[in-house]
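Reopening: MFS transporter still failing for me.
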Amino acid sequence: MPEVSANPARRHQRRPTPQLLGISLAYFMVLLDTTALAVAEPSVMTSLHTDVVGVGWATTIYTMALASALVFGGSLADRLGAYGVFVVGVFGFGAASLGCALAPALSVLLAMRALLGLFAAAIIPSSLSLIASLYPDPGRRGNAISAWAAISGIAMAAGPVLGGWLIAVDDWRAVFVINAPMALIVLALCRTSITSTRDARALSWLPHLGLAATLATATLAITQAGQGSWLMAAVYALIAVGLAYGTAVVDRTSPAPLVAVALRGNRPVWTAFGWGAAVNYALTTVIFSIPLLLHTSAEAAGATLLPMTLLIAVNPLLTGRIVAAHGPLRPIRMGFLAFLIGLCLVGAATAVQHQPVILALGLLLSGLGVSWTLPALVGFAVNHAAAEARGSVGGILNATRQVGATIAAAVASAILTQHHSSTTAALPFLIAAAVCALGLLTATTQRVARVHAPSRGLVRRARHHPDRAHRH
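Support: Ran it again with your exact input. Result attached.
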């Protein structure tokens, strides 16, 4: 009898493993779509008879939809149940990917890319909720979330290489076709329903629509400026400011606001959100611009990005040790400094032809910049949020990161539509370097390291070692 009772326990411990694999594969699929598409940009331009602005919109419309719907996707998962939202998101992502692959024109591709962003916004927050339900034990849950998060690094490293290989075998459409079988595998691995708690919270569409309209209009303003239409750029910019103000007003009175009340006056958390947007701005600038400037094959472009993407995959483990030893601010400062230098080197390498060593060194430093800053700033934000608002931090942080990515692709596409002089080629990277310099400045002057509701002993220690207070 003891053996009979032990076996079910072991089986129960192993049972979530296929489902965790499926949930992680769904996250991989979402992230792969972004990085693999970068090396497909020249192929898309040739096939659909479009220009840099067109492929820029193919990137920005996805990140706009994702940024606008991420928080709403989390609320929807809490209200309707994470499993149902996850399944719909995966199925829809696979179907919309096939729609992208079959797109006969740029307009159809843009519509399908917008749907991809919406379905991705359903997958990401529901994935975390399902992991929490599968692993109620905090220790095992932490390991499961670490495995889920590690997939992002693998997707970042594999995306450009896999995308380049797929394009060499067929063309850019293969980048989207591969998502359909992956979606079917995810649905097969997660075919057993996962029970999760439901919260009958209110839902409000208006703030999310306002955010989407603001991002779309701001992108139009940047695009018009890049094309020299300064009057229209100014008009769109004013409309974007008005929409942003209106969205903020509506959000404050919404029954389901984008920003939790407990976070509205929290300056350290909003600083971390700004850091996240800055990092994604710089990262997207590199991933979007390099394939367009190299004038080489998709395979070669993917291989060129490897020094950066591989470090993003493996270096967060070292970042965790630095955070544990010195607190989050040190790796954040190190990361912004590395990114600043790396972007300047990348700009120099693209401005002067045939500088592969300088380019590789710049991409290497950029990879260090991403892998040092992102894990640390997540911990910084969570540590400075009140307990009741920590669930909102992840959603807003991901949304602000996508906002940074949206603006970066719009700015880079607007600049690169101009004649490719040496100055024009370097300009997107120099602007991103300036953004990182601002991030470094704010991280250097940042002195707030207070954790909400700390113990008295922790307060005393924080007075002497503010960076280390979070470790306890």
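Residues 262-472 form a domain with the Growth Hormone; Chain: A; fold (CATH 1.20.1250.20). If you still see a failure, please send the error message rather than a screenshot.
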